[in-house]
Design goal:
This protein has three helices and four strands. It is an alpha+beta fold and 107 residues long. A four-stranded antiparallel sheet has the order 1-2-3-4, sandwiched between helices. Helix 1 crosses helix 2. It has a single domain, classed as Aminopeptidase (3-Layer(aba) Sandwich).
């Protein structure tokens, strides 16, 4: 299996919204006292700004660029990288490749 890195396409936004909001809400470091709906609305606006920057790196299968494995971006809070659980191990190095791509693109 080969992994391809590409820029985010409009059709990828729902994947990013869903995974980011779910993972950040249930993250142990999330100490918010806001209602989930209020918190999600704030995060949604944050992601819209990230999307507008056009600097979201998507990881997908080389033979099927619609099969998303993960993504990463950098904003005012620093880098955020997400990789689907089944692809975090196995020597694919997706997280490292996304990180390298994000750092190289910010020179």
């Amino acid at each position: 299996m080969k992994v391809l890195l590409r820029n985010m396409q409009e059709g990828d936004q729902n994947f990013v919204f869903a995974t980011y909001l779910r993972n950040r809400w249930f993250d142990k470091t999330n100490k918010t006292t806001l209602k989930r709906s209020t918190w999600s609305a704030i995060q949604h606006k944050r992601l819209e700004k990230v999307f507008a920057s056009k600097r979201v790196v998507m990881a997908c299968l080389d033979e099927d660029s619609d099969t998303l494995l993960g993504y990463g971006f950098v904003d005012q809070d620093g880098p955020y990288i997400y990789v689907k659980l089944p692809y975090r191990a196995g020597g694919l190095g997706i997280k490292d490749r996304i990180t390298k791509e994000l750092l190289n693109g910010s020179d």
